[in-house]
Every structure is written in structure tokens, then in C-alpha cells.
Backbone:
């Protein structure tokens, strides 16, 4: 990834601060990942996704604007994180994940 940023404010979990991230590579392909930070020392990364959790299909990138997969936000629902995201400037997708399962998948 050439650049990485937070999708929104961290989510506080028992395990630490969960941050959903967006990253963009040299070809302007946006992907979504996650990282877990230590509660007492948020500069310490406890785990992160090694592969994108979500990424655009090549078909979704065949538009005038190459930015084709941007997370809009995320928020907690009972037992789930819910995240809407932009697809090729023409549609909206929605993803959900259980925080515990996401934390377990981080290295």
C-alpha cells in the first residue's frame, strides 16, 4: 500500500482499539483492512490484516474515476460492525463483521 488511513474513529473492544483502515496502492486501487491497537499504548500495534478484508473487482474500476472502493464510515451495532462503502462512484455496498471474528483474523 502506498498510503493508509483510518475509515473512522477507533472502536473500543476488550482486546484493544479496533481501527478499520483504507489503503491505496500505486494504481489507485483502494482496499479495506483493519488493525488492533493496545488500549494502554495506542502506538503499539497488536495485530493487523495482512490481506484486504474488502477490495474492488476489476470490473468496478472501469470508470472514469479510478477511485472505486471507498469506505464511507462504520459504526457498531449489537455484536456487529456495519460499514457502507462507495463502489465506482455509482453504487453503495454494505459490509458487516463480528468484531471478535475480525480480531481473531489479525496477525
Residues:
Amino acid at each position: 500500500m502506498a498510503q493508509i488511513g483510518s475509515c473512522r474513529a477507533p472502536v473500543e473492544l476488550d482486546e484493544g482499539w479496533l481501527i478499520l483502515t483504507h489503503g491505496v496502492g500505486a494504481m489507485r486501487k483502494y482496499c479495506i483492512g483493519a488493525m488492533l491497537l493496545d488500549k494502554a499504548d495506542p502506538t503499539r500495534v497488536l495485530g493487523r490484516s495482512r490481506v484486504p478484508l474488502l477490495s474492488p473487482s476489476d470490473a468496478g474500476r472501469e470508470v472514469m474515476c479510478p477511485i472505486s472502493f471507498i469506505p464511507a464510515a462504520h459504526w457498531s451495532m449489537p455484536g456487529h460492525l456495519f460499514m457502507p462503502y462507495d463502489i465506482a462512484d455509482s453504487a453503495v455496498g454494505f459490509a458487516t463483521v463480528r468484531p471478535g471474528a475480525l480480531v481473531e483474523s489479525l496477525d
In short: The beta strands are 3-6, 11-13, 16-24, 30-37, 45-48, 69-71, 75-77, 80-87, 91-97.
